[in-house]
Amino acid sequence: MKLSSIKVNGRELAALPSANGLVLLETINEVEGTSWSREMFELIRLGELEPLTNWYEGGGKEKLGHLAAIPYEQAEYAPLYRHPRKIWGIGLNYVQDAEELAAVDPTEEPVSFMKPDTTLIGQLDTIRIPGDAGTITAEAELGLIIGKTCKNITEAEVYDVIAGYTTTIDVTASDIHARNQRYLTRAKSFDTFFSFGSQLITKDEFPEPLAIQVETAINGEVAHRNKVFNMKFRPYFAVAFHSKVMTLLPGDIIMTGTPGAVVIRDGDIVECRIDGFEPLLNPVRN
Asked: Is the pLDDT of residue 103 over 90?
């Protein structure tokens, strides 16, 4: 099941796609007599995604075609939600082929970092280049969204605690980071340096995510591509690993690494393309 958040009269409300456009959860509630949360974060926080998915797969998908919808060309997308408790990222996570993957040191651990929610933007929002920050890069990444509170879980338990996946773009002030590796958090924490959405696809659509292909594109041209299979630290491992560091909460986001970064400048359009998702695009301005 795919979900988005769209802007309606000053609110950012959850909606499902139909043949005619996007159907708001509040419209479904009115017709079906249900009481689903109207906002994406609350759907996740309250554990409503799985029963909503059951409704969708049990006949709800067909009903959507008969409900009032906002035409796609009129919809203004918002980020899926605004205030996740945590945004985790993983760096240097892809290798190019099976031979390189086999050579990974088994004692190696993920290079991870966190970003504040003040970095957060959504589909078609502008990435702002900070003055005097030097070279800025952007990376397309598969984002994983936590669906249940969890701590010290195993990889075998991860499927049960995730909500689904999304597209993300991680932005970095590369020159700042290059001056000193300890500056990583500052280099990644400027306003507008994290984009995500516009779709959440529930975990049942990707029971085995290793075949998913991720592409970083700039101005319509693909610069880097790779498959999740070629990650040193695959999504389920990443969740289990970080759950041993801190309690993961509904709505927490884990970016799983990039196939490659592009340098972005004023006037560019950077893009995250992932199998099954609408592309995530952001213009770049000084």
From this structure: no
Q: Does residue 17 lie within any of the structural domains?
A: yes
Positive or negative torsion for Cα 16, 19, 22, 27:
negative
| Domain-embedded: residue 80 | no
Residue 78 burial by CB count (10 A; 0-12/13-18/19+): exposed, middle or buried? buried
Q: Could you give the residue ranges of the DSSP H alpha helices within 47-129?
A: 49-55, 61-64, 98-102
How far apart, in whole angstroms, are the C-alpha atoms of residue 22 and residue 25? 9
Identify whether the C-beta of residue 44 lies closer than 8 Å to the C-beta of residue 147.
Answer: yes
d(CA 102, CA 90): 20
100 and 69 inside one domain: no
- The enclosing domain of 229 has a CATH number of 3.90.850.10
> Which tens digits make up the pLDDT trace of 166-192?
999 999 999 999 998 889 999 999 999
Asked if omega into 198 is within 30° of 0 (cis), the reply is yes
Number of domains observed in the structure of the chain? 2
**DSSP character string of 159-211:** HHHEEEEEEEEEEEEHHHHHH-GGGHHHHT-STT-EEEEEEEEEGGG-SSGGG
Q: Are 116 and 54 within one domain?
A: no
Of 43, 74, 105, the last residue of a domain is: 74
243: exposed, middle or buried (C-beta count within 10 Å: 0-12, 13-18, 19+)? buried
Same structural domain, 20 and 133 = no
pLDDT, average across residues 48-69:
95
Structural domain span for residue 106: 87-285
**pLDDT band with cut points at 50, 70 and 90 for residue 98:** low
Residues 170 and 280 in one domain: yes
pLDDT band at 107 (very low <50, low <70, confident <90, very high): confident
